[in-house]
Amino acid sequence: MVNIDTVYQRVLALANKEQRGYITPQEFNLFANQAQMDIFEQYFYDINQFNRVPGNDTLHSDPLDILEEKIAIFHTSREITRGYSGFNLPSDYYRLTQVRAAHDEQMHVEVEKTTHRKSLVARNSPLTKATTKRPVYYIKGNNLQVLPEEVVTLHINYIKAPKKVNWTYVVVGEKPLSNPGANDYQNFELHRSEETKLVVKILALTGITLKDPNLYQAATAEDNKNIQQEKQ
Length: 232
Fold this sequence. Notes:
The protein is of the alpha+beta class. 38% of the residues lie in helices and 23% in strands. The chain folds into two domains: 4-72 and 162-231, no CATH class; 75-160, no CATH class. It contains six helices and ten strands, in the order αααβββββαβββββαα. The strands form three sheets. Strands 1-8-3-4 form a four-stranded antiparallel sheet, with no helix packed on it. A four-stranded mixed sheet has the order 2-7-6-5, with no helix packed on it. Strands 9-10 form a two-stranded antiparallel sheet. Helix 2 (25-50) packs across helix 3 (63-72), helix 2 (25-50) packs across helix 5 and helix 5 (195-209) runs antiparallel to helix 6.
């Protein structure tokens, strides 16, 4: 986990280093959430890319192992039951990793992913239509549609989205100071190694807001350098 106040103070110090301007707490929170999601979503593109190239046997430096460690923070599971419109996915759902159905009072039947079109075609043949021993699912909006309808309970393993970060504060004099005791105070959920990357990405967004091309270009150049280093 990355401390949000540490990131805020670093961003504020670098943005104000040459009296470029001031970033408000509200702007920081907006930029912080965008930066967190940019980094989080990039994990999955990087995994796809690194899967195409050979890795190495050193656990602490293999790119895939590093990415899996970062994503492991977000792995979770839950049991869900069929509702009127199907199986409602959890509000923090980002990507499914496994779906299992209850059969003979046990959660051991893997549910195969399909598409709506394929499920319609498959149900027309006794050989391919879904059964309780061979169920299928497809995603429709924020719901899982599972066949056959006799399946009423699922156990899902999924990757949850990171919580929305929020730097809360109190004003002392004219200066906002961190208020970690607030109920809605929320640190970054990303791996602690992402702190510098968060600072750089937020600074790039700050440069746009402050209409400072030098700050934006410097932050973007640093971000690109970090990306190149990770992919070498």
